[in-house]
Model the fold of this input.
Amino acid sequence: MAERLTPDKRRELTRIALLEAAAEVFARKGFHGASLDDVAEAAGFSKGAIYSNFEGKEDLFFATIEHRDRSVLTSMEDVVADSGELDAILGRVAEALATVMYRDREWLMLEAEVWLYAQRSEEAQQRLADHSQAHLDRVAEFVDRARGAAGITVKMPSRELAALMIASTNGIMQLQYADPAGQHDRLFGRLLELLSSAIEVG
Done:
């Protein structure tokens, strides 16, 4: 017998479906080219479902970025959850990052779109700054948890290491999509090798 969905669970599933549809529509059409009708149609809901979950188009836009960032970070947390030698953990992280890059070109397009949008609006710029700070905090927390799980000491503040990881990862993704034949995904491994110089085992 199928599990009966509670109103809260149904609302959560609707919100996720809208966010996934919005990611595809915003990446394909851009913020200004996309409409809420486009998103509702792609998700299979009425436009009223959007307004029941989000304040409007801009709120949905930023929520889409936040949802994608959280999803990617969750996948990274699953990778480091398994114990093992440091080299093995770093290898799994590099492989996972490369997998995300090839699977989710849409994510990079969304990141570029929100950055461009924010440069033309002080209010949007502040919202992007708030999101970036919150995301940086989450990545720093991830670094702390990974450090504890692997029994390592990091020679620099976790937040600084997190900022380097975010900036470098985004840069590698941009290189790969600009030059797909360049096989820049290999740089994830090189990046982690360099970052490991800031790590002490034990």
The radius of gyration is 19 Å. The chain has a mean pLDDT of 83. The CA atoms of residues 144 and 158 lie 7 Å apart. The longest strand covers residues 152-154.
